Amino acid sequence: MCEQTFSQTNTQPQLKVYIANLGKYNEGELVGDWLNLPTTNNAIKTFLKNQVGLNSRYEEYSIHDYESDFSLGEYENLYDLNLLAVKLEQMSKTEQNLASAYCNANGLKDVPSILNVCEQVNDLSYVELDANTWGSKEEKLGYAILDEINTDLKDTLEKCKLGGHLTAYDYFDFEKYGRDIAINEGYFANDDFFIFYTTDIDQKLYTPQEIKTNLNDPRLNETC
Q1: Nearest Cα to 129, choosing from 141, 142, 147, 145?
Q2: Average pLDDT by consecutive 10-residue portion of the chain (224 residues)?
Q3: Which among 90, 155, 175, 216 is least buried, having the fewest CB atoms inside 10 angstroms?
Q4: Any residues with CB less than 8 A from the CB of 105 and at least 6 apart, and which?
Q5: Residue 104 carries which DSSP code?
Q6: 152: Cβ–Cβ under 8 A, 6 or more apart, which residues?
Q7: Is the pTM of this model over 0.85?
Q8: DSSP H helical segments within the chain, as ranges?
Q9: What are the residues facing 15 on neighbouring strands?
Q10: Could you tell me which residues are beta bridge partners of residue 194?
Q11: pLDDT of 224
Q12: How far separated are the first and last CA of the chain, in Å rounded?
């Protein structure tokens, strides 16, 4: 039999969750603690025993609070959450932000769906809006489309001289252009991302076990 002393890892946390003893809570007593993820699965077992007080009488826990860009359910599997944290650790900040924007815009709160979004996030066609510029989301979208996608139109507008140093680009109605695209071609996931309808994500394509196998991270294995 193996007993492991619980300690928070030095890894930069991707998720922070407050885990409470559900039985104690229903009896009017709050017993629990914050857990930083990712950690090892063995450390989670020790945490649930020592910090949360799970045993043969009190076998259930619930998530009473969390720090995450994703919305999380109260009764998510803690080991799946650890898997999600490991997956997030391997993603760029842009990929993380896009995944959370997609999940929140589509009301996804269960970890298996969130894991699938993270696994397939690069399949999405999107533009990132410049949060540091003035203007409406539609106007920012118009600028982004010309800068990143419809560059031929931008070149044409800039070559159309209207006198002095002004071109047709200076008079172009970016807000109206962006509004037409937003109506017909996609949706604003949040203030930072516009996602096109031409791409989407299969929320059930992979099981958590398949994603765990692909990650092949030793922290996700139980050794005792």
Answers
A1: 141
A2: 49 93 95 97 96 95 96 94 97 97 96 97 96 89 93 91 87 95 97 96 96 96 76
A3: 216
A4: 187, 188, 189, 190, 195
A5: H
A6: none
A7: yes
A8: 22-26, 41-50, 78-89, 93-105, 111-120, 137-148, 151-159, 168-171, 174-185, 208-215
A9: 37
A10: 127, 188
A11: 66
A12: 7
Give pLDDT, residue 110.
95
Strands 15-21 and 32-37: antiparallel
Q: Which two tokens stand for residue 100?
A: 């959370």
pLDDT at 8: 52
What is the sign of the dihedral through the CA atoms of 48, 49, 51 and 54? Answer: positive
Q: How far apart are CA 159 and CA 134, in angstroms?
A: 25
Phi, then psi, of 73 in degrees rounded to 5: -80, 165
Range(s) within the chain of domains with CATH label 3.10.20.480 = 15-123+202-220
Q: From its phi and psi, is residue 174 left (phi > 0), alpha (psi between -120 and 50) or beta?
A: alpha
Indicate the SS3 state at residue 170: helix
Token pair, residue 95, equals: 């990929």
Architecture label for domain 15-123+202-220: Roll (3.10)
| Exposure class string for 109-146: b at 16+ Cβ within 10 A, else e | ebbbbbbbbbbbbeebebbebeeeeeeebbbbbbbbbb
Neighbours of 223 (CB within 10 A): 9
22 touches 56 (CB < 8 A): no
d(CA 45, CA 3): 10
How far apart, in whole angstroms, are the C-alpha atoms of residue 15 and residue 84? 9
